[in-house]
Specification:
The chain is an all-alpha fold and about 80 residues long. The chain contains 5 helices and no strands. The longest helix has 15 residues.
Length: about 80
């Protein structure tokens, strides 16, 4: 899954506005801004995007925060892709 696909998943989560105007929920901007400081530690864009999705899942109001549950919440097909982000 490419960067655009991950961005679409992030913006399609509950609480995110995926309208044609391209605006997103403020929490998406917060996560983007917060994670930007860590970008140099991720040599691949894909792993950086998975890092943001894991963070979004951990900050969500879900009761269980296991990787399989987080993967389902953020719309990733397999939690295995999040294991080595």
């Amino acid at each position: 899954m490419g960067r655009l696909g991950l961005r679409k998943k992030l913006n399609s989560l509950p609480g995110h506005d995926s309208s044609s105007s391209g605006t997103t929920h403020p929490s998406s901007h917060f996560i983007d801004d917060y994670c930007e400081a860590y970008r140099p530690h991720f040599p691949e864009v894909r792993s950086f995007e998975f890092f943001k999705l894991i963070l979004l899942g951990l900050l969500s109001p879900m009761k269980r925060k296991s990787l399989p549950t987080v993967a389902r919440h953020v719309g990733v097909e397999s939690h295995q892709s999040l294991v080595g982000f």
